[in-house]
Amino acid sequence: MIIERMASELAIPKGFIASLARGASHEYKEYPIPKRTGGTRIICHPSRRLKALQRWLQANVIAELPLHQSAAAYRKGRSILDNANVHTASRYLLRMDFANFFPSITRMDIKKYITERPNLFVLWTVEDISVFCDLVCRDGVLTIGAPSSPGLSNAVCYDMDVQISTICSRSQTNYTRYADDLFFSTGKANVLQHIERQVIQVVSELGLPANLAINPAKTRHSSKRGARRVTGIVLSSDGRSCIGRKLKRRIRALIHRYEKLDGPARASLAGLIAFAIGLDPAFMNRLIDKYGLRRVRAAMMHTDSP
């Protein structure tokens, strides 16, 4: 049913969709991008024709799937600031992280999600399920770069979010998940250590997604005595969200040596500035006072010469 609808709305033959799905894993190009913490991350960019089908599935299927309220990423009308604001009033913060989040969600997970929820996939045939899984996966897993991956990862993690939220509600702990980053906050001491152990157990026993794993190297406990950060936003001791001095210094340093930056670095800087002034509009004026309007405008627009 879903293949026929896609074929009709996109005005392409059903056979073309099925054929493209069978060879979808070969429709990607890989691009390495630098991580902020060092090393590189591989982005798997789908071909134009595959991306068109993935975008259609995102808009017409994936966007309609239920999401838990704790899932803060990839949602219209929700931002990283909204995610951070959930935790601003609390004294203690715990951050946990999934290892290899997207690739940990497999074709088998997606198939299980669909078959166990027939009310969400009415009239879907075995062929529909197979083609859908082929179109959204590469070599049997979700990829960083496919437009269908973010929304689908949120949907597949619904039951996990329910379990973790239930645990947190018993101890008056706030919980949000921003893609692979899990954040917990509370005003009570010694609560989050217990939450950490429970979350590890929940994740280890998950049936869907079955292969998620916590990366212990990225687990962080913090409190108002030190720096608390949620998705790059600093939670100040007076209950406000701000961008923090570290990011401001980084932006200033990059603007100072703008002429020496390559294309990707300039694009990254433009994004950092947009992010920073979205949280602190007055920071824009301070940048202009220090470096001049022409240079700051060039950095924001990602142009060749300031």
How is this structure best described in words?
By secondary structure, the protein is of the alpha+beta class. Helices cover 47% and strands 14% of the residues. A 4-stranded antiparallel beta sheet has the order 4-5-3-6, with helices on one face. The relative contact order is 0.13.
Please mark out the parts with pLDDT under 50 across 5 or more consecutive residues, or reply none: none
Task: Describe the main β-sheet briefly.
Answer: 4 strands, antiparallel
The N- and C-terminal alpha carbons lie at a distance of 54 Å
Shape: globular
Tally of separate helices: 14
Give Rg in angstroms.
Answer: 22 Å
Q: In total, how many beta strands?
A: 9
Strand/helix succession: HHEEHHEHHHHHEEHEEEEHHHH
Strand content: 5-15%
> Within the largest sheet, what's the order of strands?
4-5-3-6
Mean pLDDT: 92
- Helix/strand-derived category reads alpha+beta
Question: In percent, how helical is the residue content?
Answer: 40-55%
Task: Give me a quick take on this structure.
The protein has 306 residues and is of the alpha+beta class. It contains 14 helices and 9 strands. The longest helix is centred in the last third of the chain and has 17 residues, at 263-279.
Q: Key features?
A:
three-stranded antiparallel beta sheet; 306 residues; alpha+beta
